[in-house]
Amino acid sequence: MTASNLPRDESTTRPGGQQLRAAHLDSTAQLMNRITSQLGSQLSLVSRDGTRRSAAPALVLVGHGSRDPRALSTIRALIEKVRELRPSLPVHLGHIELNEPLLPDTLASLGTGDAVLVPLLLSRGYHVKQDIPEAAAASSANTRVAAPLGPHPLLVETLYARLVEAGWRTRMSETARRSSGIVLAAAGSRDPDAAVDTRRTAELLAERLGVPVVPAYASAAAPTVPDAVRALAARGRHRVAIASYFTAPGRFSTECAEAAPWIAAAPLGAHPAMARLVLQRYDQAVAAPAATPERRLASA
Predict the structure, then answer these.
(1) Is the C-alpha dihedral spanning 64, 70, 72, 78 positive or negative?
(2) Which residues lie closer than 8 Å to 130 by C-beta, 6 or more apart?
(3) Residue 270 has what pLDDT?
(4) Does this model's pTM top 0.70?
(5) Residues 31, 43, 102, 122, CA torsion sign
């Protein structure tokens, strides 16, 4: 893949020299996130008619599953951060495959109780549209399925933090900026909606950093990470960093990091912004009108 055939909407830039404004926006966003989390904790206990619920629905985090043991430990660390933010909320974990507990087993353990399923997935795709709603509909629990985590500004906050941890400079000269770029490495999906969601995250990250951000994929979609690196190099962007758009470490994130010509950031992991995002998705699902299983499947 060359620079000439790189789609224009797969990379976005903004002018530099806005560090003070960005810092102000960051502090404002963090304050608003804390206020939103606190309000969500209270609103989750209030019904749409204004009456108080006896108990909040359980939160079921739905992970994909991985053979890499680091993935499970990372998800468990994220669960602990969610519990720290909302100690009274019952939080459970279920996997689509590869790890226990599997999602159907987790749902079975809830009996006929209320639950909100929050996918630890970053875009729309087969798991979000089919696997998770079907498991929810087949269970005895009274379930709602939240939206996937992405795209969302809190993911961009996490991606930025991981890049800085890896060595990305928060301030750089215009010469360095003009030679820098980011490859947003994602898992990949054949569902076109997944590419739309990933591309939107790339646009938001480009606005945040002021350099081009190109989405690339470990499987099932193009361009690959090496192709995206070469496309940026053809445009004079030789200082290319890999932003790891994965919830937790695993084979795909490792392979993508190995293609980095400069620095590679860690996956999103158990960053505090991820815990806040999980609770935002939970609160949004609780506040939404109830849906029958048929409606859940139709709207997924």
Answers:
(1) negative
(2) 300
(3) 98
(4) yes
(5) negative
Q: What phi and psi, each to the nearest 5 degrees, are found at residue 214?
A: -110, 125
Residue 231 CA to residue 203 CA, distance in Å, equals 17
C-alpha span between 185 and 221 (Å, rounded) = 11
Sign for the CA dihedral angle at 5, 9, 14, 20 comes to: negative
Where residue 213 falls (left for φ over 0; alpha for ψ -120 to 50; beta otherwise) is beta
Summarised one tens digit per residue, pLDDT across range 260-294 is 999 999 999 999 999 999 999 999 999 998 765 44
Give me 283's structure tokens. Answer: 């609160």
- pLDDT at residue number 33: 55
Query: What are the CA-CA distances from residue 122 to residues 1, 26, 108, 169, 186 (Å)?
Result: 25, 22, 25, 26, 9
pLDDT in tens, 113-145: 999 999 999 999 999 999 999 999 999 999 999
Question: In this structure, which amino acid lies at residue 258?
Answer: E
Alpha-carbon torsion (141, 145, 148, 152), positive or negative: negative
Angle between helices 272-287 and 153-166 (to 10 degrees): 170
Arithmetic mean of pLDDT, 40-64: 71
> Phi, psi at residue 176, to the nearest 5°?
-65, -40
Q: Is 111 left (phi over 0), alpha (psi -120 to 50) or beta?
A: left
Largest CA distance in the chain: 60
DSSP secondary structure, 112-161, as one string: T-EEEEEE--SS-SHIIIIIHHHHHHHSSSEEEEPPPS-S-HHHHHHHHH
DSSP lists the bridge partners of residue 224 as: 217
